[in-house]
Design a protein that fits this description.
By secondary structure, the protein is an alpha+beta fold. The chain folds into 2 domains: about 35-100 and about 340-380, Hypothetical Oxidoreductase Yiak, Chain: A, domain 1 (Orthogonal Bundle); about 105-215 and about 260-325, Malate/L-lactate/L-sulpholactate dehydrogenase, NADPH binding domain (Ribosomal Protein S8, Chain: A, domain 1, 2-Layer Sandwich). Helices cover about 35% and strands about 15% of the residues. The strands form 2 sheets. It has a 7-stranded mixed sheet with strand order 1-2-3-10-4-5-6. A 3-stranded antiparallel sheet has the order 8-7-9, with no helix packed on it. Residues about 5-25 have low confidence and may be disordered.
């Protein structure tokens, strides 16, 4: 998932009810917790598209962005779903997110292309690049599109399920050269961003969907914990003294996110983070050396067409065997056992499509406030 530091929807943690005073003979039961509101996915898409259009986004682009945001919530990637909608509208209104026109084509040669997105919406431009890369893969066996100067691209996994179900193996890599959040291994000051790598791998039945950052955690998760007055579940940050920490406040004191692997094996996450930046910034010819600013992204999309290699059947035979062997592995702890990457996300999506989408606490009030400000009807729960 592409990440950012300055924007995140968080809700202060409610104070717990304490026990009665010294003369209390019993502790009253806590008030009943109301059932969480659930929303129809189509209704959420329509609301998001309407809000983006009200902010100034053309309807065709707004529909694609809304689809990507809601898809993230369907998967359970709540930091990159509708929690971002109000921020996106604010970026449109301020002019930080461009709304009109097409990307500039800097290069187009056979299987590869390079685009300057000109600050156009990242979800829209990345979805378009995935389609372009898949078309080139159908012709050349593989396709690659490098993008520079995109706005934020949301949840990377949201681009992958559809092409994987059509038989394409697609990778999306992302970095933000305008931000610095992750310390290199052996250092304490931030240089890199979380630099996620995502892939959709076709197989019989549901595809394998992986989406992981080259840092242990993300700035979005850290900001959410800080807003709720909580600590992170692990010591995933580094403070200015070089000590690992679970306190998100260290990020305001010169600290940074740790690379994947932490203080023990962080050289691996650091190396992979460098690779992502070389592939997204180096190939696009724009990055940290240019000292950019603003909330944005550089992206590389790679698509492979298995029929152009050993064949679709041969590919499916190998992937299906491997997936089956992993799922059949003796469980380390009952009853869960092995889950393939993306399996839980797709299960969440199926439940949400059936029973309604449960948004992260605090997101619904923000959406209602946005609707009121824009003079648009808010999303209605089921």
């Amino acid at each position: 998932m592409a990440d950012h530091t300055h924007r995140s929807t968080g809700v202060p943690r409610p104070e717990r009810l304490g026990p009665g005073g010294p003369h209390t003979t019993h502790t009253p039961p806590p008030p009943a917790t109301p059932a969480p509101e659930r929303f129809d996915a189509d209704g959420l898409r329509a609301f998001a598209a309407d809000a983006l259009a009200a902010g100034g986004m053309p309807e065709d682009k707004a529909a694609v962005i809304a689809e990507g945001l809601v898809e993230a919530d369907l998967y359970g990637h709540t930091t990159h779903g509708l929690a971002l909608l109000a921020d996106y509208v604010a970026e449109i209104e301020s002019g930080e997110m461009a709304v009109d026109g097409e990307p500039e084509i800097l290069a187009s040669r056979g299987a590869s292309a390079c685009w300057d997105a000109r600050r156009l919406p990242g979800i829209w431009i990345t979805a378009r690049a995935v389609g372009e890369a898949c078309e080139r893969a159908d012709t050349f066996g593989l396709g690659a599109v490098a993008i520079r100067r995109s706005h934020h691209i949301g949840c990377l996994a949201s681009f992958l399920e559809s092409p994987a179900r059509r038989g394409h193996l697609v990778l999306v890599l992302c970095s933000d050269p305008g931000d610095a959040l992750v310390a290199p291994f052996g250092g304490t000051s931030a240089v890199l961003t979380p630099n996620p790598i995502a892939a959709g791998i076709p197989r019989g039945g549901d595809p394998i969907l992986l989406d992981l950052s080259m840092s242990i955690t993300t700035a979005g998760m850290s900001a959410r914990a800080r807003a709720r007055g909580e600590r992170l579940p692990g010591r995933w940050l580094i403070d200015v003294r070089g000590d690992a920490s679970d306190d998100p406040a260290v990020l305001d004191q010169g600290g940074a996110l740790l690379p994947l692997g932490g203080l023990d094996h962080g050289h691996k996450g650091f190396a992979l983070g460098l690779l992502v930046e070389a592939l997204t910034q180096g190939l696009a010819g724009f990055g940290r050396a240019d000292e950019p600013s603003g909330w944005g992204a550089n992206v590389l999309v790679l698509a492979f067409a298995p029929p152009a290699f050993a064949g679709a059947d041969a590919f499916a035979r190998q992937v299906d065997w491997l997936a089956g062997a992993c799922l059949a592995s003796v469980p380390a702890s009952a009853p869960r056992g092995v889950r393939l990457p993306g399996q839980l996300a797709l299960e969440r999506k199926a439940v949400a499509l059936r029973d309604g989408v449960e948004l992260f606490p605090g997101v619904v009030p923000v959406l209602r406030a946005l609707a009121e400000r824009l003079g648009r009807p808010p999303p209605r729960p089921l």
